[in-house]
Amino acid sequence: MLLSPSASPEKIKWMARHAPSATGAALDLGCGAGIYSQTLKKQGWAVAAIDQVPPVSAQAIGFLQHDLEKGLPFPDHQFDLVLAWDVLEHLDNETAMWTAIQRVLRPGGVLLGSVPHGDDDRLAPYNLAFKHHIDRTHRRTYLPANLKERLLSHDMEIMAMELKGPVSPQVLAEFIPWPVLRMPIRKIIGLARRLGLLAFQELYADIFWAARKRV
User: Fold this and answer.
1) For 76, 134, 142, 178, which has the most beta carbons within 10 A of its beta carbon?
2) Which range of residues forms the domain containing residue 87?
3) How far apart are alpha carbons 184 and 188 in whole angstroms?
């Protein structure tokens, strides 16, 4: 689950909006390159980062190498915050991980995460699909309804859930056969998007959520 070395602005914003205001103990589950662990550490969190492959920043973030299919090697109620960015879809034993997350979170602790959105029916007639459908490391995709079921069944109160990572309508410019016109058309589409003239909520490739463990 190694991530690229660049952080997602959307994830950083989501953390800023929904992470607890008081710092404490945080777990970065499937930490990848350790970008979000470093972000939390700079904010004063005591971070435990865990994944199957060590990042370059392993020593700086308190990294633990561990097979995530074997659960979480932490005591009950240890963390005030758990990050699960782009990790659950990779696990064969997803249910066991949901249970493990619920176990290590303290009552009132917050879980932030993202998973791939499975509904790209609007793209299918054009022989297109979300990129994650061709990722062979993904075991599943999700819909908001079944993600809510998973959270609620593991004693979580849903604080927020949103579709993120839009397919940009500016991709339509790539179908113009005259290269000189592509940039102007991209700019026109971009302007229409900023003005709210183009709405495409169905074409978001990820589901972000924030949930709190019930007290």
Assistant:
1) 142
2) 9-167+205-213
3) 6
Q: What is the DSSP letter of 127?
A: T
Q: Is residue 200 domain-resident?
A: no
Nearest to 152 by CA among 98, 78, 79: 98
> How far apart (Å, rounded) are the C-alpha atoms in residues 139 and 198?
32
Task: In whole angstroms, give the CA distance from residue 54 to residue 176.
Answer: 44
- Ordered per-residue pLDDT tens for the chain, 215 residues: 444 457 788 999 999 999 998 889 999 999 988 999 999 999 999 999 999 888 766 666 788 999 999 999 999 999 999 999 999 999 999 999 999 999 999 999 999 999 988 765 555 555 454 555 566 777 888 899 999 999 999 999 999 999 887 666 666 677 788 889 889 888 888 788 777 776 665 577 889 999 999 98
Number of H helices, E strands in the chain: 6, 7
What is the token pair recorded at 106? 């303290």
- pTM for the complete prediction? 0.81
Question: 134: domain CATH number?
Answer: 3.40.50.150
Q: How many domains does the chain have?
A: 1
